[in-house]
Amino acid sequence: MTLIVSNEDVEQVLTMDIALAALEEMYVDLGNGQAVSGPRVDILSGSSSHGAAQYGLKAMGGVMPRHGVGAMRLNSDIITWPERDGNHRREKVPAANGRWVGLVLLFSAHTGEPLMIFPDGFIQRTRVAATNAIGAKYLAREDTRVVGLLGSGWQAEGQLEALCAVRPIELIRVYSPNPEHREAFAQRLSQKLSREVIAVATADEAVRQADLIAAATNTLEPVIRPEWIRPGVHLSVIKVQEVDAETIEESDRVLFHTRAMIKEQIYRPGAERNPIKQAEEGWWTAPDAPFWSRLADLSDVASGHATGRQRDDEATLFVNNVGLGLQFAAVGARVYEAVRDQRLGHEVPTEWFTETVHP
Amino acid sequence: MTLIVSNEDVEQVLTMDIALAALEEMYVDLGNGQAVSGPRVDILSGSSSHGAAQYGLKAMGGVMPRHGVGAMRLNSDIITWPERDGNHRREKVPAANGRWVGLVLLFSAHTGEPLMIFPDGFIQRTRVAATNAIGAKYLAREDTRVVGLLGSGWQAEGQLEALCAVRPIELIRVYSPNPEHREAFAQRLSQKLSREVIAVATADEAVRQADLIAAATNTLEPVIRPEWIRPGVHLSVIKVQEVDAETIEESDRVLFHTRAMIKEQIYRPGAERNPIKQAEEGWWTAPDAPFWSRLADLSDVASGHATGRQRDDEATLFVNNVGLGLQFAAVGARVYEAVRDQRLGHEVPTEWFTETVHP
Questions:
Q1: Alpha-carbon dihedral B299, B303, B304, B308, rounded to 10 degrees
Q2: pLDDT tens, position by position, A205-257
Q3: Chain A window 191-220: which residues touch B at a Cβ cutoff of 8 Å?
């Protein structure tokens, strides 16, 4: 039987600790050449509906031999590029009857058969958050107590939860442009995490005295300012656009999630249809920048091929530049085990997804 | 509702004529920049089962705005590399309870939602065959009557059927190493196509006096010999390994399926695990060969940006070097329309594959 599982099922079984453990062993295997992650492929085209929207079909996958699984995550998105608060943002339209479409297919690497199909939503936030938290584990000071958080959305919530799982955080100052959003976020997360979470009116106020400055926005322009770099601070971003080249140059130690995929592969027909050039171009598409030679990947550190923070006064930076398809295999293996044990999800005959011919 | 459809359902609705029409309009759109095909991604790793097998997870997709669909084809394969008849062959093990795993997910480019999930087997053979037939339509002489066919497998059968749909073929001589296979093939195809199909004992015998020489093998070494080139002949191969650089150089006019994907993207961890180097390297990974500048793609000819056969005495060659993910969108759109009309397949709630969160 192949299991078809919902985000609610995933949420029921996937704790942050499970995700952190799954990803930590994944980075070890990846750094040791014992697991493999494929490139992310983005196919973009015009869409005949929803005004100036694009249609995006995305695939990213990986194979985790340790657990005998491979995973492929697919996204089928209607994308718009509205301007909000002076910044351009990439927004996905819930055009599937009010819903979005992101799917992970988990396969057995022993038999090839599909084990489970599940939506990518809950696991997506969890893996992004856990990745930055693992970055913080290697780079942030052990005594990191104060966090300055930029962003109060869905990803920001996950980031905070994950950071609190790896460092003894006591105080969080959160800034986002909309006062209602940041206030609601502060109230909710104070309760949820039993930490002091305070909404503040400016980014500068949020980052003042912070041991760790985390961005979790959907902006396409830099939000981390180089002047925030000071001895001992750790900076954490969930996308390349949140940081500028100067900040990378000025930081003492910088880890990327994976430099191999710094240039996303985007395929589109004919003329340029994307109105927002900076969504795709920036320091990360300039391979000659001087800082590249002193960067390492998270998997290099996890597998002992590079080092994390060495001194308390280093200023460090983690750039979660792009996701890895392999993450869905590593975390998916744990989710599959748990949902099967707990008999969650819908069972569909595996024969519906296999065939008797040999292509 | 999302439809889950079987190969039998696809076979019931997908005729060669429908596939040819779907692909011809696809090449026009592709050549005009109105459709987009993503790269093929192959992720290979060791597999702990089935002896020296590898596990391969593959994805290829495309978007066809004309029909408002995108498609992603996924393969999850247990792969071995046995030596047969002196040649190394890539073979997939039916490890999923005696079955193979190849899936196509067809999405709406208007709403993003998954419209249909179906196995890739029948459509795979049909699209490969139809592609070479469209190549023959642009390159083979109008009066092509005699075919020399190398190979008597599943792909060879599709090739012959498709070629007969585009040219007035009367006689086919088929060679493959196993006498029983080629005899059975000749008998079966004579009946099926109402043409004279004769099994012969050597490749030379098969190609003598042939107007069109078609290879449809799973060998990884060249089977087309340069000395077979003569005025007016058309050569057709279904993979780069079947032809050598000399044959490309000596042919008067050469079309590729798509040169952009001549170098497959293969990702694997750590050390080289593939025992068969020629599966991945050859003239097609040597970008400096002199012939590249005089080649064109099938979509260039279909869209009027390059020309097909110009004279009866030209020796022509079509290299179906790699499949395009876009083919699954183009043909899948037609299949979806037909299976929905005929109420075939299993209906599953689309909500099982969509979500209320926004990753």
A1: 40
A2: 999 999 999 999 988 789 999 999 999 999 999 999 899 999 999 999 999 99
A3: none
pLDDT at B41: 86
The radius of gyration of chain A from alpha carbons, rounded to an integer in Å, stands at 20
Averaged pLDDT for residues A80-91: 74
**Does the CB of B162 have a partner CB in chain A at under 8 Å?**
no
Name the strand (E) or helix (H) holding A121: helix A121-139
User: A96–B74: do the CB atoms touch at under 8 Å?
Assistant: no
Retrieve residue B111's tokens. 């709403």
Question: Strands B54-64 and B36-37, how do they pair?
Answer: antiparallel
- What are the residue boundaries of the structural domains of chain B, listed by start? 2-123+325-353, 127-262+269-319
Query: Which amino acid is present at B308?
Result: G
The hierarchical CATH code for the domain A2-123+325-353 is 3.30.1780.10
For residue B282, give the amino acid letter: G
Q: Classify residue A209 as left (phi > 0), alpha (psi -120 to 50) or beta.
A: left
Contact residues for A47 (Cβ-Cβ < 8 A; gap 6+): A53, A54, A55, A78, B65, B109, B110
Neighbours of B20 (CB within 10 A): 21
Bridge partners, residue B281, by sequence:
none
- Class of domain B127-262+269-319 (CATH, top level): alpha beta
Strand partners, A79: A54, A92
What's the CATH number for A124-261+269-319?
A: 3.40.50.720
Residues A350, B96: C-beta atoms closer than 8 Å: yes
> Is B146 exposed, middle or buried (CB count within 10 Å of its CB: 0-12, 13-18, 19+)?
middle
* Secondary structure (3-state) at B32: coil
Identify which of A72, A103, A358 has the shortest CB distance to residue B59: A72
Q: How many CA atoms lie within 13 A of A192 on its CB side?
A: 15
pTM: 0.90
Residues of A in contact with B117 (CB under 8 A): 352-353
CB contact (8 A) between residue A107 and residue B101: yes
Burial B324-346 (b: 16+ CB within 10 A, else e): bbbbbbbbbbbbbebbbeeebbe
Interface ipTM: 0.89
Q: Are A31 and A305 in contact (CB under 8 A)?
A: yes
Identify the segments of chain B with pLDDT beneath 70: 46-52, 85, 87-88, 261-280, 359
Q: In chain A, what's the furthest Cα-to-Cα distance? A: 64
Strand stretches in chain A, DSSP E: 2-4, 36-37, 41-46, 54-64, 69-80, 83-84, 87-88, 91-93, 102-108, 114-119, 146-150, 171-175, 196-199, 212-215, 234-237, 253-256, 265-267, 296-297, 316-319, 346-348
The answer to whether the CB atoms of B357 and A154 lie below 8 A apart is yes
Alpha helix (H) residue ranges in A279-345: 298-302, 325-341
**Mean pLDDT for the stretch of residues A19-28:** 97
Q: Which residues contact A88 (CB under 8 A, 6 or more apart)?
A: A81, A82, A220, A221, A275, A276, A278, A279
